[in-house]
Amino acid sequence: MTKLNAILVSAPLLMLAAACSPETADNAETTLENAAADTAENAEVVQEVVEDAAIVAADEVSEGAADLRDNMADDEAAEAQTDGQLDGTD
Question: Is 14 a residue whose pLDDT tops 80?
């Protein structure tokens, strides 16, 4: 959730706090601002974790593709050569 979303979701609480004393309203506003800041910081941490996981996954896919390529090359080298024609004579 972005900071803006956190603020928008919390806006009704601010309106309720407005009906309270000024001190309560200030405390509520401070709490919401802190919550929005925490949410933004947490989103950044999650983004970094997801990016790191994507890098690891991409590395694994690349390694798997290289292994597959090597296996296919080995199989191709071990097979008898054909004349390359699709005429059923091989």
Answer: no
What is the enclosing helix (H) or strand (E) of 44?
Answer: helix 22-78
Identify the pLDDT of residue 9. 67
Query: Exposed, middle or buried: residue 40 (CB in 10 Å: 0-12, 13-18, 19+)?
Result: middle
* Domain range summary for the chain, segments of one domain joined by +: 38-76
Amino acid in the structure at residue 26: D
| Orientation of helix 3-18 relative to helix 22-78, angle to 10° | 160
Residue 35 near residue 10, CB atoms below 8 Å: yes
Which residues, in sequence order, are CB contacts of 40 under 8 Å at separation 6+? 2, 3, 6
**Is pLDDT at 69 greater than 70 in this prediction?**
yes
